[in-house]
Each structure stands twice: as C-alpha cells, then as structure tokens.
Design brief:
alpha+beta; 2 domains; three-stranded antiparallel sheet; globular; nucleotide-binding
Length: 328
C-alpha cells in the first residue's frame, strides 16, 4: 500500500533543474515498489513537475526482447489514450538507453480488491467493517465504468479480476493492467488465441498466487476467463469482459470463487460446462439479495448472447444492487 505523497515546498520551486538527464536519469530516488514476471514498478520523484510518480519497465533480463517491448509499449499507449477517472493517468513514455521502454504514471495509494477479499475470507473483522459488500460492489461498478469507456473506444480489457481493481485511500477506483487488451483493428482480430493449460500451470506455479482462504495456489487469470477466451474463438468482444466482471461480482458478494477446480483443467471445464449455484446459495450466511443473484447469473451465462449485451447494462444492474445493499 502506498501512502499519499506530501506536497513539499521544493516541489513547487519555480526554477527548472539546470541539467535534465534523458530517460530514467530524469527521476530521483527511484525505488522498487512492485515486481511481476513481465514488469517492474518503481516509485520516484520527478524534479520537473515536482511530483512523485510510478515508473513501469521490463525486468532487465527481458528488456530487449522485441515482443516484450511491444507489449509494454502497447500497454502504455492504450492506458495513455483511455483518459477516464477510473484509469491511471500516464505522464510520459520513454526509451532509456539502459533499461529500454518505460512509462510513468500517477503513483496511486490504497490496495487491490484481492488483498481486501483475502483478509475478509480469513475473518478479519476490521477489513469487513471498512469494506462492506456495498463498498466492494461499488468499487466494481467504478471499474466497469472504465470498461464501458474503453469499449466505446474499441478496447477490450480481457483481464478483469480483483487484483486489477485498485481502491484508493479516498475511495478512488482504478482499473489497472491493460497489457493484454484487445484493440479493434489490430492483429488480434485475425488471430485466434488458444490457451495452453500446461503453460498456464507453469505460470501458476511460478507466481505462487494464494487462494482467498490462504490454502494452495490461486490460478490467477484463468479463474476469470470467459468460455470464449478458453476456447479461443474469434468472438472476443465486450461480453467477455462482462463475464469476467460477473465472476468478480460473485466473488465480491460470496467471498468465494465460483469456478475454482482442483487444477486449471478442471477450472476450465467448470467455466465452459458447469452450472454454479448463485452466490446466495454458495454463501447463505452473507444474506445476498435475490436481485444480486439474478445479475450475477445473467453475467455468467455460457453463451455471450444470453449475457448483458453492453457494459452499460451491467453497470445499471450493479447500481441497483448498490442501492439495495445501501438500505441494509
């Protein structure tokens, strides 16, 4: 969790630095604040604007790999063009002589929804009180607003999950990680992506992601894939994001994952074939309203034509749930 940066007098000094190095040399006090298999996140101070920023770059061992450079540049440009209150502002895209492609963005505070859900699942009463169901569902509604904006501009996120939904210290909500986004008119439209269960299993083991209850491993992205993502059809559109958001809504309400299997293969079979019980049956102790069940189960329909057809429709349904939960 990042603390809110404090505005200091030196950051408002009217004079620009006399010497401004190029690339990452511009930023002072760089420190690593996060790391994944395909990205490193640093915090740093920008003496030109006088603000603290986040810098995303590739790990050094892959920073010169063409496909990885292309992926990071794509993420930076998609994020930069999606200027919405629920997306993170991008400040600069650059190419450092040593570290390669990087981009800087707003350094956000708070934490992601998965960390919040994990504590609630282990019985943390303080977290439950701070993040009741109405606040959790409202956060998803904010992320869906970003998705509706992206869909209107021809972008499908394809990786909507609690880890990518960030809740700020002042109730800001951000949808992160547009690195796997599909842009209409790109090569993705002509390419069928088929998911290799063996490769996903290897990635799962490397990431060591935990389940909500702390036992075993969490397959991460596979838990939220739509049937059409798994089957590699050519019809990946905004209704796939609607399915992903529906899985998130189920989890936010029930504090349980609807499709988890003993392994990734079984998880995929559950997503494609299994009819899961509504969240109120999965977690009867949580008093989930019938309306929420109806919204979740429609979003999770196997056939895209039977789901909500636009993100705006799902947002309206989520707002109805929020209004109902707010009355309790």
């Amino acid at each position: 969790m990042q603390n809110e940066p404090t505005i200091i007098l030196s950051g408002t000094d009217p004079d620009l630095p006399r010497k401004l190095p190029s690339g990452l040399g511009r930023y002072k006090g760089r420190r690593q604040i996060g790391r994944g298999g395909n990205g490193v996140l640093e915090g740093a101070f920008d003496p030109v604007t006088g603000r603290t920023v986040a810098i995303k770059m590739l790990p050094f061992d892959i920073h010169a790999v063409p496909n990885e450079r292309r992926r990071l540049l794509r993420e930076a440009r998609v994020t930069a063009q999606l200027q919405h209150p629920n997306t993170v502002p991008v400040y600069e895209i650059g190419n450092d002589l040593v570290h390669g492609i990087y981009f800087t963005m707003k350094l956000i505070s708070g934490e992601n929804l998965f960390e919040i859900l994990k504590r609630i699942a282990t019985g943390d009463e303080a977290t439950e009180k701070a993040y009741p169901a109405v606040r959790r569902v409202s956060a998803l509604g904010g992320a869906c607003q970003a998705l509706a904006y992206a869909h209107a501009r021809g972008v499908i996120h394809r990786d909507v999950k609690p880890e990518n939904i960030w809740v700020g210290n002042f109730d800001e909500v951000y949808l992160l990680d547009w690195g796997t986004a599909k842009v209409w008119g790109s090569m993705d439209d002509q390419t069928v992506v088929r998911y290799d269960a063996t490769a996903l299993k290897k990635a799962e083991e490397e990431q060591q992601l935990q389940t909500l209850t702390g036992g075993g491993q969490r397959p991460g992205t596979p838990l939220y894939m739509s049937p059409e993502q798994i089957q590699g059809t050519r019809t990946i559109d905004e209704r796939s994001d609607i399915f992903n958001a529906g899985v998130c809504l189920y989890e936010l309400l029930a504090i349980r994952e609807p499709f988890r299997g003993a392994n990734i293969d079984q998880t995929f079979r559950n997503i494609i074939h299994a009819e899961v019980p509504p969240p109120s049956e999965k977690a009867p102790e949580r008093n989930i309203p019938k309306l929420a069940d109806e919204v979740v189960m429609r979003a999770l329909k196997k056939r895209p034509a039977e789901r909500y057809q636009t993100m705006r429709e799902l947002i309206d349904a989520i707002l109805d749930i929020v209004q109902l939960l707010d009355q309790d």
